UniProtKB/TrEMBL annotation:
<protein>
    <submittedName>
        <fullName>DoxX family protein</fullName>
    </submittedName>
</protein>
<dbReference type="InterPro" id="IPR032808">
    <property type="entry name" value="DoxX"/>
</dbReference>
<keyword id="KW-1003">Cell membrane</keyword>
<feature type="transmembrane region" description="Helical">
    <location>
        <begin position="82"/>
        <end position="101"/>
    </location>
</feature>
<dbReference type="GO" id="GO:0005886">
    <property type="term" value="C:plasma membrane"/>
</dbReference>
<dbReference type="InterPro" id="IPR051907">
    <property type="entry name" value="DoxX-like_oxidoreductase"/>
</dbReference>
<comment type="similarity">
    <text>Belongs to the DoxX family.</text>
</comment>
<feature type="transmembrane region" description="Helical">
    <location>
        <begin position="16"/>
        <end position="34"/>
    </location>
</feature>
<keyword id="KW-0472">Membrane</keyword>
<keyword id="KW-1133">Transmembrane helix</keyword>
<feature type="transmembrane region" description="Helical">
    <location>
        <begin position="54"/>
        <end position="75"/>
    </location>
</feature>
<feature type="transmembrane region" description="Helical">
    <location>
        <begin position="113"/>
        <end position="131"/>
    </location>
</feature>
<keyword id="KW-0812">Transmembrane</keyword>
<dbReference type="Pfam" id="PF07681">
    <property type="entry name" value="DoxX"/>
</dbReference>
Length: 141
């Protein structure tokens, strides 16, 4: 089995795998960003409930990152710098939106999972920044 894996040549499907990886990496953000965009006032209220400084600006940044930048990642436009920016954004959402260390009970458990999910996603964005988007992209690298 290990020999099979060792000699598996992914070079022919690598560009397609990188495209699929980019889509999978940001699909969560698109799914959560579109409702934020469609119900912007509710998003501002949510940011206010989190005691986010400048909740209107925070909501606008969330919509921009989760919808616009996600689409740019999918099409592979300025992928490496946007992946680094998205990693920082994801860290911010983890710290602001999933501060499980301030909670108890079920809230703590659920937010701890979401916090570490975000940390894992940061790893994906860092890998994307290193590898680049592949040939099936506007960046083509």
């Amino acid at each position: 089995m290990l020999n099979t894996i060792r000699y598996l040549n992914l070079s022919k499907i690598n560009p397609l795998l990188l495209l699929v990886s980019r889509v999978l990496l940001v699909i969560l953000f698109i799914v959560s960003g579109l409702p934020k965009m469609m119900n912007f006032e509710s998003t501002v209220q949510y940011m206010t409930s989190l005691h986010t400084p400048l909740p209107w600006l925070a909501a606008a940044i969330a919509v921009f990152m989760e919808v616009i930048v996600s689409i740019l990642i999918i099409v592979g436009f300025y992928t490496r710098p946007l992946a680094l920016i998205f990693a920082a954004y994801t860290l911010g959402t983890a710290l602001i939106g999933h501060a499980y260390w301030t909670m108890t009970g079920a809230d703590m458990a659920g937010n701890m999972i979401h916090f570490y999910k975000n940390i894992s996603i940061i790893g994906g964005f860092l890998l994307l920044a290193i590898t680049g988007p592949g040939r099936i992209s506007l960046d083509k690298n």
